[in-house]
Amino acid sequence: MLKKQIETQIVMTQPLLLIVSSKSVVESIAYFVIAFRMPHKRIPFQLESPTACVFCGRDENNEFLYGKFFHRKTLSVHQNCLFFASGLSQRGRKESEGILGFFISDIQKEVLRGKKLACFHCKRKGATIGCCKAVCRRTFHFPCGIQNQTLHQFFGSFS
């Protein structure tokens, strides 16, 4: 029986590439290239100002891009950041309940959920919008999505 001697070398050539070479006495040299992504440093979520949107952290009042900007005692929010937040549902029977039918307590829960998620584009935490593909785990802020040409559409009622 032939004994195989395995010698493994790990060489960092680039930040995103790991090269592993394996040598055996009988067999020829085989090279395996394993691509991996180094973990990104997640940047903590910070609001631009006390009146900034609790979802995206920006205080821009651009109704064309972000929808109306709502201010309440404890929070401010862009309409589209509110509508596209993945873990949020309109439980109010009237639009006058909370903000457009979204209860303040539900908004605060979604903000807490988002603090655990990093934006795919800017790497800051607080991303509450998820990709519509079930297998895709990417999350992002609404303005980051707009800047990176993501598509946001409404289709019937949300279920």
From TrEMBL:
UniProt protein name: G2/M phase-specific E3 ubiquitin-protein ligase
GO molecular function annotations of the record: zinc ion binding
Record bears the keyword Transferase: yes
Pfam families tied to this protein: zf-HC5HC2H (PF13771)
Protein's UniProt keywords contain Metal-binding: yes
Annotated PHD-type domain residues: 50-159
Protein's organism: Araneus ventricosus (Orbweaver spider)
Predominant place of localization: nucleus
CDD domains tied to this protein: ePHD_PHF7_G2E3_like
Pathway(s): Protein modification; protein ubiquitination
Gene: G2E3
Keyword terms of this UniProt record: Metal-binding, Transferase, Ubl conjugation pathway, Zinc, Zinc-finger
GO cellular component, one term: nucleus
Compartments (UniProt record): Nucleus
